[in-house]
Amino acid sequence: xxxxxxxxxxxxxxxxxxxxxxxxxxxxxxxxxxAAITAALDGAxxxxxxxxxxxxxxxxxGLSILFRHAERLELVAPPVLEPVLTLSGIxxxxxxxxxxxxxxxx
Length: 106
Fold this sequence. Notes:
The protein is α/β, with parallel strands linked by helices. The protein has one domain (5-98): 2-Layer Sandwich (Transcription Regulator spoIIAA). Helices cover 30% and strands 34% of the residues. It has helices at residues 30-41, 60-68, 82-88, 90-93, and strands at residues 5-11, 17-25, 48-58, 73-77, 95-98. The chain has a 5-stranded mixed sheet with strand order 1-2-3-4-5. The longest helix has 12 residues, at 30-41. The protein is globular.
């Protein structure tokens, strides 16, 4: 069974390529994640921002994909993913930013 994962490509207001992920990234859907990153990087002039704000779980299959493209990625990660990103070493290879807090404090 495939774990639910939604992948939404887009652009930030400054034109930077963004891939937003929501759900869980594991072995059952890691090929979809890899394909979405590859597609988003295709033709991108600068780094791809992978927004993991709505990701609740990331296993070694997902990490291996991030490692494969680390030099071209910037990650936005929620607090729940910070330990795995730090302990795995991916945080040493690419920029990992915290999820921005909303202006209204929610």
